[in-house]
Backbone:
């Protein structure tokens, strides 16, 4: 019972920040709908993807998992079990498992490694256990490991409805990777690990007085951005994505304790994006729970934007990414 899968990370255009207060927090049911682009790195050295192999067998005496060759324990292992245990139950299997996972990009550097990681895990585990699930159903199990992983189960542009229960909080594809023209150039300003993980950050969202407004506005923005994607309106998608990003960071900064994910260079880049936009190529920024800035642009402008950003002193390096294909099961096993 062995299977392997590959999934890509995603960048949220409408952010998930904070869990629903009406549901069990372990279910990672968000307080608002979110929208993202699943992204595939355009260079040879990074596709922004995770490759995971999982094997269920009576040969194993205990569950064991490795990420980048390191054995996972504590909270990390707990999150894996949150995905695998209910699937094992579903398949009526009580074998122990061995899992190995590899990212082709830096882990925990604001590049959403857990999104691709838990999406790949859910896909591989469902396949290994022989469960007949749709991608939407698989997204609900990926969500149990990391909320944003629900969206990485699909390629292209994705809508995660907050729902009201485990079964209804699922991700669906809005359109495929070639159906809307948007790419991102990620400006990496700082590669260190995060001080506060998003997992912990979600807990603090409600302590900000602005969170209620953010939730209400995010619901509107998620619907509006979906429409703009389907209308092929790049400028409107960029405008809404920027607005939503500012709302999330305003909540982070005004939470108790406050969370400042931005680095001084993050703000420098935001200002540059606003300036570049006026002169061309047209671009918009968005920032997740980390210091790196995603600069959203049309595909034909990727190279030019990358060159402009790479000239800036505060930019360590850039990674350009396009919308990714769907996650998939592969015969290439890691062990
Ligand atoms: C800011 O709980 O999905 O990226 O802690 O990495 O598992 P991990 O992330 P998750 O929170 C994601 C928060 C966000 C916004 C988003 O992706 O929607």
Residues:
């Amino acid at each position: 019972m062995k299977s392997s899968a590959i999934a890509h990370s995603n960048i949220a255009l409408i952010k998930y920040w904070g869990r629903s207060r009406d549901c069990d927090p372990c279910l990672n049911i968000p307080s608002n709908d979110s929208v993202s682009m699943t992204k595939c790195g355009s260079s040879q050295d990074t596709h922004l993807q995770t490759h995971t192999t999982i094997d269920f067998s009576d040969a194993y005496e205990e569950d064991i998992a490795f990420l980048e060759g390191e054995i996972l324990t504590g909270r990390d292992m707990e999150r894996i079990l949150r995905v695998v245990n209910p699937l094992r139950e579903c398949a009526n299997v009580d074998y122990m498992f061995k899992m190995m996972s590899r990212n082709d990009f830096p882990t925990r550097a604001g590049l959403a490694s857990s999104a691709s990681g838990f999406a790949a895990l859910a896909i591989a585990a469902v396949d290994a256990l022989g469960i007949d699930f749709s991608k939407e159903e698989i997204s609900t199990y990926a969500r149990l490991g990391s909320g944003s992983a629900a969206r990485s189960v699909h390629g292209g542009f994705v809508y995660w409805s907050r729902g009201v229960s485990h079964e209804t909080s699922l991700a669906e594809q809005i359109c495929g990777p070639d159906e809307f023209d948007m790419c991102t150039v990620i400006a990496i300003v700082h590669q260190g690990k995060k001080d506060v993980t998003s997992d912990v950050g979600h807990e603090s969202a409600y302590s900000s007085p602005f969170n209620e407004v953010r939730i209400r506005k995010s619901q509107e923005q998620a619907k509006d951005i979906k429409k703009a994607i389907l209308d092929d309106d790049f400028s409107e998608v960029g405008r809404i994505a920027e607005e939503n990003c500012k709302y999330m960071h305003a909540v982070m900064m005004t939470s108790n304790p406050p969370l400042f994910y931005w680095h001084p260079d993050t703000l420098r880049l935001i200002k540059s994006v606003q300036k570049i936009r006026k002169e061309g190529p047209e671009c918009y920024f968005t920032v997740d729970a980390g210091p790196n800035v995603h600069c959203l642009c049309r595909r034909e402008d990727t190279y030019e934007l990358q060159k402009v950003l790479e000239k800036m002193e505060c930019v360590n390096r850039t990674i350009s990414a396009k919308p990714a294909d769907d996650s998939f099961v592969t015969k290439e096993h890691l062990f």
About this structure: The chain has a mean pLDDT of 95. The chain is about 35% helix and 25% strand. The first helix runs from residue 74 to 91. The pocket of DP6 is lined by residues 12, 15-17, 34, 112, 114-115, 146-148, 197-199, 202, 288-289 (CB under 6 Å).
